[in-house]
Sequence to fold (363 residues):
Amino acid sequence: MGFVLDELENIQKVESYFDRLFSSVKLEADKILYEKYLKARSKSSFARKKSGRSLVRIRGYIIPSDVAVISTIGIPIVPRIASNPAIQIHGGNVRVYLRLASIGSVFSRTFIAIAELKIENLRDRIKVEARPILYGIMPYECVEDPRVDPENPGVLYHVRALYRTGASRVFTFQSRVKNYGVDKIEVVNFYSEKWGVFLLQDYRDTFPINRDYMMVRPFFKDRGFGVIAVGPRNGARVDFDEIVVIPELLPSKDEYKAGGNASLKLSSNEVLVLYHIVDRHGVYYTYAALFDNNGELLASTEEPVIAPEIGVYSGARPLTIFVCGLALYGDKLLISAGRDDEITLIYEGELEEILENMKFFRG
Fold:
C-alpha cells in the first residue's frame, strides 16, 4: 500500500489519495496507545514548574503585513497570519518556513511559504519575501506547522488538517524540498504485525528526533488530550508496536495536553528537543528535553525555556506560543515560534544555560 503523492497538479489523483488516507485510519490503534499512556502514567513522577521567567529572549518578530508573498503564477497574496515557522540555517542565510493564511481566509485555511534572508537581518522588525511551497488543495484542508528534519535538511515535515464533512483527520507528512518547491509528499504512516500499514486519526506535532526515531503526538479525541511518544522509524514509517509513551513528558492532572515542537542534533549521541505543555486554562509553556540516539530521554528542564508574557502581543489566541524551529548559530540557540496564532517571534538564548537547567534522569 503506497502513500506517496508526487503529482499535486492532478486534482482527481489528490481526491483519490485523500480518500485512501481516510480509509486507512485504524481507530482501534488509539485504544492501544491509551493503554500505553496508562502504564506510563503510573511511572511518572517528574514535576515541571511554571514561572514567568524565560531562559531565552525575543530577538525579532515578523507580522503579516511585513510578508510579501506571491502565488506560483504571480498573484500577490495578502496574509493575515504569519506564524508557527520552522527555521534552517543555510550558509550565511536563514530559511524561514512560515505558516500563512490569506486575509480572506475566514476558515484559517493555511499554507506554508519559504523566505530566505541574511542571518544578521533576523532581528527586530523582520521583513521577508516568501514563496508558497506547500498549499492546501482541497477546500477542507489546512497546511500547518512545518519542521525541518534535524539530520536531512532537504526534508520538511508538515501537518495537514482535513476538516471534511462527517469526519476530521489530522495527519503529518514528510515532504522533500527542492529548488524552493516540493516535488513529493508522503504521509507519516505506521506499521504493526496486526494491521500492516495504517494511519492514526490525529497525530500532529510529529517529526524526527534523528534518522532512527520519530516523536509522535497522538491526540485522543474522545478524551480530549494528547501525549508525547517515541517510536523507531524507517523514513516516514513508524514501528507502531515499538512506540513508547514517555512518562516524564506527560501532562500532569492539572495540564491539558503535551506535544513536541522541534529537534536539533547537538552531538553524535545527543539531540535537543523542545516540547510544550498546555495548562488547564489553555496557556502554553515550552520546555527542553535531551534525548540520546536510541530515542531514550536523558533529561528535561524543570523551568520553562519560554514562559508566556503578558503584553507582548494581543492576538486571536492570547498566551499561545507554538515553537516549530530550532537552530544553532555559533553558541546561540535560535528558536522560531508563533505567538497568539497570528505573528512570528524569534527567540535567542544560550545553549549552555538551557543544558545547565536540566534535570537528568539517566545517561
